[in-house]
Amino acid sequence: MIKRTKWFIPLFAVLFLFVMVPIAEAHVTVHPSESSTNAYEKYTVRVPVEKDTNTTEVKLEVPEGINLVSVLPMLDWDYKLKKDDNDVITSVTWLAKDKGIGPNEFIEFSFIGANPGEPGEFSWKAHQTYDDGSVVDWVGPADADEPASVTKVVEGDGAAPHGDNQIADSGNTTEEKADEDNTTSGTTNNLLPISLATIAILLAIISLFRKRA
Q1: pTM value?
Q2: Residue range(s) defining the domain that contains residue 67
Q3: How many degrees, rounded to 5, is the angle at CA 154 between CA 150 and CA 159?
Q4: Which is a Pfam family this sequence falls into (predicted)?
Q5: 32 preceded by cis ω (within 30°)?
Q6: Which of 25, 32, 150, 182 has the maximal Cβ count within 10 Å?
Q7: In percent, how much of the chain has pLDDT > 70?
Q8: pLDDT on residue 26
Q9: Is it the case that residue 168 has pLDDT exceeding 70?
């Protein structure tokens, strides 16, 4: 019984590391997770495939308060916009022209959104459709199995240029900010399961040495 216990903890830690980390990375996310008031932000929707079948459609609901201005066209994907009675875009849906993206693949869709003048948190509800007809709704709270991505809009510099002028004058500033945020977000999401697994392995090794001594 003791011999089995010796190997149970490190085995569990390794399984946790290789199973939980991919699960944490499989979420549909919108970047950046933080932006400024009144900014014309370049938002990027990152869509990984978490099943053994292709993703062929992605619908993103635009949260009230953020106005979708323009969508970056994709070579192998079409898109359609849904508007309300006031001609405000409420959702954008990307549709694969061919087979879409398959297992172990991901894709990124980009668009320009006009942020509100007041700070707040804005939830991006996404719906991922697979070619087998199944749909994954990324609409839950942060601790849910299928959480919606959230962008926090904070108070920005009111004197900063906005719209096309902001994008042109800043060069790659917005893109670099998004990339930096993507890296930070991904690192934060991955560190917790990796750290827990590492601690479990270290504790198991210490326990083995103590018993041998």
Answers
A1: 0.68
A2: 26-174
A3: 140
A4: DUF1775
A5: yes
A6: 32
A7: 62
A8: 75
A9: no
